């Protein structure tokens, strides 16, 4: 186990190094000069050169990359070109909001997805099941931007149940979390359904039924815990999927997380912020996958880590 | 078209003690209350030496003051932290007398030393100020920007309330420059304390002071009780909520949660809002110092031929393009916008005439047309406008390939001279200050035509440049001869047709029902979206 963990952590570090290199190359070859953006339209050639030197952007690519990576290892993510603030400060100020939104999103997709999945499995083959599976297909395919605006319009503007975007209270969290969770709930309901259908065919369920246990008891005590196991491991992978989703959801709802930060930075080619958010997201994805792999054998003893 | 002229009274070459502020405070104004303004993007910085986008420009204006200022809602200069000033006969020495008893937000009194420090700070290369170049006419600028001096030799402290600024050449725009945010007076101790983070901890002399800044969520400005101007500001607080999509901001405005959507009315909702009398009544329309144009690179074949550039000018249907943006603009005939002093009244420019355009192409030996590229920023409505341009040029046989790119990439291609044509939308010139010279130097003059400059036509005519320099060496920025000379300069530019001036955008500011104050304050030419110091709430 310790050896496995060590090897995986080492691999993760390599992956992150690779991500940093590829992102750095992509931003480097971008035909946009950050110095000109900082210097503005009225700058003299002298000012432009001064700024280039101060930022070290006159150095060769490898020197620039080495400086970035060695800073990164020491926790220095550089300064935003346009916001004139440490990138780590900006990310740290916004990370809690993103984590809260992700937690909300995961809770939503699990509650909605698992419930619908169980119902569909119990009523499998009947119209309710078919209706739910079509709904889940729509949920998986619906663009989050549209879902978000729709929810906002119906539940915040028309009905006034929730605030119109923003951040601060539990009420603010509901709509963005649902928007983020809806897509995942579609996946989860389908997976839960098939997992549940599989479990319900097992011999021990038949035995339980033969013992004369109530239907509810069989479902909740015998089928559900077994059906849910393979799904729990998926949550780690969700973190990666959510990293993409929060960019859209945070922008629609004015949620002050790192997704919104990334979106603004991309529009303004604020390279240090783009690098910083990419590295934080990549770390989250790598750790999420690692977590998923570590949790799986704990809940399913048939799987062994080597 | 209205033509705004600077007050001539204030430009007399003499001391002007106690001179009229040129603005009568609103007798109906109510004191107190707070308003909420929304923005999509984070506020970049509130450091007046750094901030240079339309979002933080007016915020910085409310936190800081310079020696000069504008009469609210107009392009008319008035003294700010300077009580009066004298200009020497030859126009190269400005002596400013400061107001006594002006306090920074930290309680300390402002003196002439602070003026000197602030000008040194904005021009020194370490500050990385995008506005440093505006101060190039101050004596000693070259030395400080080359890192050879720590201080501007042209700025002298005479006594605690007097500062003398010597220029190395006459500069008609100097008083405008002293009204730019970059010329704001900052206290040294506060800059030293926060270093490069001064932009997050601004300390000025302005009508408001920063009370709270929660990154990614909101900024709260509180009224400066010790503000040196009597009776203003009216509002107790301003709350800027950031991270709000314009469409969400509009919904919140309709619910009464927002007073001013800082990003304006979203294009998709514009007709709906303007079609509803109740909402349209809360929209204030005004001109702005903006021109949208197509640059024609005079260094790239066949655009190097004048008849070809004239043909393109004649082929563009400007009225149709203004319709694409729901009529939120007026067709342009020349580089200057109509509300800019020096605008040439009565000039009709190139009129839309496909046959004449074809004849011009034939004159250049290109009767069969040619193929070229149009660079455009990739955010709506710019690609749609580019398609309209493409169709218009197709009609005279010119095939245009559209290169739709991110803003920074278009600017890069333009600066490098690699783009035959660029539609300026999203990067268009909005004047830094209301003076005709501001539309020439960087975007049409030889100075901007070098590698990386903003003159994307790479147009450089030395005779026209000489005229511009002569106009700017006059002492009085609003002298009729000077404005006449500028008008003539732009007419000479149009003879060479390096641009297709397409339209001048109008400004539409939406406000909540409870907002009060003159309409001009909501389309203030220098404070976008509104002049926070003078607006008020009625309830």
UniProtKB/TrEMBL annotation, chain A:
Keyword rRNA processing set for record: no
TM segment ranges: 12-30, 99-122, 134-155, 167-188, 227-253, 273-296
Listed Pfam families: BPD_transp_1 (PF00528), BPD_transp_1_N (PF19300)
One annotated GO biological process: transmembrane transport
ABC transmembrane type-1 domain ranges (all copies): 95-296
Keywords carried by this UniProt record: Cell membrane, Membrane, Transmembrane, Transmembrane helix, Transport
InterPro entries: BPD_transp_1_N, MetI-like, MetI-like_sf
PROSITE patterns in alphabetical order: ABC_TM1 (PS50928)
Protein's membrane topology: Multi-pass membrane protein
CDD domains xrefs: TM_PBP2
Gene3D superfamilies (UniProt xref): MetI-like (1.10.3720.10)
Compartment annotation: Cell membrane
Protein's UniProt keywords contain Transport: yes
GO CC terms of this entry: plasma membrane
Similarity remark: Belongs to the binding-protein-dependent transport system permease family.
Protein's recorded name: ABC transporter permease
Species per Swiss-Prot/TrEMBL record: Meridianimarinicoccus aquatilis
TrEMBL record, chain B:
Signal as UniProt keyword: yes
Cellular component annotations (GO), alphabetically ordered: ATP-binding cassette (ABC) transporter complex; outer membrane-bounded periplasmic space
Pfam families: SBP_bac_5 (PF00496)
Keyword field contains Signal: yes
GO biological processes: peptide transport
Family to which the UniProt record says this protein belongs: Belongs to the bacterial solute-binding protein 5 family.
The protein's name in its UniProt record: ABC transporter substrate-binding protein
Species, as recorded: Meridianimarinicoccus aquatilis
